Each structure stands twice: as structure tokens, then as C-alpha cells.
Amino acid sequence: MMRRSLPLALGILLGLAGTANAQSLGAGISQNMAGLGALPLDPATLPPPSVRNGQDIFASFREGLAEPTCDAEATSPRWQKQFAHAPARLANQNDDALVLFGYVVEELRKASLPTEFALIPFVESGYRPNARSGAGPAGLWQFIASTARNHRVPMSEGYDGRLSAVDSTQAAVRYLKTLHGMFGGDWRLATMAYNAGEYRVLQGLRKAGMNSTNAVPADLPGMSPITHAYVEKLHALACVLENAEEQPAVMASLDRTVPVLKSHTLPAGTSVQQWAAQRALDPARIARLNPAADGRGRPQNAPVRLLAPVSAPETASVAAIASTGSVTDQTATAAVAAVSPAPVVARTVASAADRPRTRRHTVRNGESAWTIARRYGMPVKALLSLNGLSGQSVLKPGAQLRVED
User: Fold this and answer.
1) CB of 86 closer than 8 Å to CB of 240
2) Exposure string over 381-403, b if 16+ CB within 10 A, otherwise e
């Protein structure tokens, strides 16, 4: 399987459109390509996307919500006011919140979990990996030390894995997956358990004679006001982000390309600055995303995990291909990513610029196909056709429609 992917990887490498690096690299290895026939493209063999649009992150979050519409009557104006800044944080191009939010949303969706959980770092840390509380919690998810150790977050003398966005997020997703299953898929009960502990929630259910299928989280006895407010905060945040669709400036700022983040290994003895420089990445940004790896207490003889853009190969890999012609499957894949963060295959895949951009719209009360089509500047017939609807179709609040803009 790996050997069959090699000619394809090289074919993609030479077919990258509009990239000067691709042209020079192609010239350097053209002799090695002699005799290789064209193969049909298989999406499974293409490198993972290295960038995404901010509005696509927003749409993915909305699609993953357990409660896709905001219940205004059940939402606290106090918490909506407190978190009113969240859309502006995501829209700020100098803030890391959007790329971190996109990473967390993607990890939750891979685990088939509600994306309400992606709002927990907003409440806990303001989406800042280096956040510390005077009471002891630390990191994106504000784990206390004992909880971090219980969920396999690396902790040692002088090294705090809670400040690793990779380790803490993976631990949080595993924990939330357990809680979500334990409480019958009720995101509110799972959130209460995340805040107060699962045993306290189970005890409250027993006292009330409830179970996960008939529980009313707001009426659960034995919970502190802080725990009840925790759920209210997440719901208020979801409403704030839903209402952000009515803020043209915010949505316009989200319409930008941001890197997709993934876990990388930082070898022992290599600094974050060295690692970033080898890959032509901004060392300051990589350090901000990885405060655990950038600290003095980092173990010197052990590798640690970094959160960094998907496309982060060493530039030496590309040079090695061009100068020696020696290509491995791993090197070819890295070279593809190095040449372009968002490769486009010439003459095979149509340019994304030639196609209308598709996004999602959540139907609100009182909206019709006509009002939605007018909002996005598209014909009503096109909207109906895109969603397999007819003129007699009834649009229910909360339904997701594909739209073009």
C-alpha cells in the first residue's frame, strides 16, 4: 500500500498549481519521474488539509451542537453579557483563539461528542494554554494536578503537562467521552460532572429518583450554584456565537485562512525556537501555543508533544529530494506539504476559486426559503436545489441548510 502511494505523492507534488517552489522542485526531480504513468487520484492518499477557512470552523461547531438553536428564555442575560467578547476573540487575527478553537472542535467531532464542550476552554481559561489559577488549576482546560495525573497528562518535577494544549485536550476529550456515555448522552449532565465530579452527579440523580434518560439537570439536587451556572455559561456562550451570524464585521473577519493544528514530536534536546525555525514557522506563535514545551522545567532527555500546523516538514527534506533524487513515501508526503499549505492539483481538481463557497445556515423562527436566499444573495431555486427541497417544503427552526456565497 505504501509503495503504491509513492508515485501518486510525487505526481501531486509536480502538479501543484501556481507555486514557484513546485516548479523548481519538479525540475530537480523530473528525471526520477520518467516512465511513471499517471494514476487516478485517490482522496485517501492525499495529504490532510493544512489550512481551513475560519467560517468553516464556525460552521463545523454549529453542526456539532447537541442543541443547534438558542433557547433565549433559558439563557441568562448575565452570562451572555460576560461572554459577549467571544466572537471578537475568534475574529481577531492576532489572537490564537480561532486556531485553538478549530483544533478542539475537530477533536470533539472525531470523538462524536457535542461541540458545546468546545466552549469549556472559553469558560475555564479564555482559550489561553498558559492560563493558571491561584487555586491550582492550569492550562487550556484548567485541570487540577490530581485530575491531570488520573487522565494520563504528563506531570513531573518541573514539567507541567497541563500547559500542553495537545496532552490536556486529548485528556479532556477522553474524560468527556466517558462522562457523555455515563450520563446517557446528556451534554448538560456530562458538563456538570466535568465541573463537580461524576460521583456527585450520580448521587444527585439517586436522591431525586432520576436517571440519565429522565433527568432535569437544572433541578438536580446537591449541586452547587457554581455547577448549575457552569451549564448556563456554556449555553449562553453557544447563543452568543449563534448571534454572531448577525454581526457582519465578525463574520467577515472569520472569512480567512488559518492553519490546521495537529500533534508533533519535539525531540529531546531541541528547543521550540529551533524546531519552528527548521520548518519556517513563527517561533513566537509556536511558543505561545506550547507553553509546556517552552518552559525551563521541560525534561531534557525526553521528547514532548507540540501543537503546530499540519504542514510542518523540515525544509531539508525538500532539498534532499531535489539534490539526490532519493525519495521515500514519508519524505514525499512531507515535501507535498512543504511546497504548499493547501495544494491544488493542476488539470485534475478544479480550483476552489472557480467554485462557489458552501457554508451552513441554521434556520431560525420565522425564516423562509426566500428570506434565507436573499440573505446570501442566491436564487431561491438554487437554495432549494442545493438542499433537495421543493417549493412546498416547510423549513423547521434548527434545520441546517447548505448555502452559497
Assistant:
1) yes
2) eebbebbebeeeeebeeebebeb
36 backbone dihedrals φ, ψ, rounded to 5° = -85, 120
The model's pTM is: 0.69
N-term to C-term CA, the chain = 40
DSSP letter string, 63-92: HT-SS-S--GGGS-HHHHHHTTTHHHHHH-
Among 165, 235, 167, 231, CA closest to 193: 231
**162 vs 53, 109, 115, 255, 317, CA distance in Å?**
28, 22, 21, 31, 32
Q: Kindly give the confidence (pLDDT) of every residue in the chain, 405 residues in length, as a single tens digit, with 9 standing for 90 and above.
A: 333 343 334 333 333 334 444 344 344 434 444 444 445 555 555 667 889 999 999 999 999 999 888 877 777 888 989 999 999 999 999 999 999 999 999 999 999 999 999 999 999 999 999 999 877 899 999 999 999 999 999 888 778 899 999 999 999 999 999 999 999 999 999 999 999 999 999 999 999 999 888 888 989 999 999 999 999 999 999 999 988 888 888 999 999 999 999 999 998 888 899 999 999 999 999 999 999 987 655 666 678 899 999 876 654 443 333 333 333 434 333 433 333 343 333 333 344 444 556 788 888 776 777 778 777 878 777 888 888 887 667 788 888 888 886
In whole angstroms, give the CA distance from residue 2 to residue 4: 5
Instruction: Give the Å distances, CA to CA, from 255 to 91, 92, 93, 107.
Output: 9, 11, 11, 22
**Residue type for 32, please?**
N
Instruction: Classify the C-alpha dihedral 250-252-256-260 as positive or negative.
Output: positive
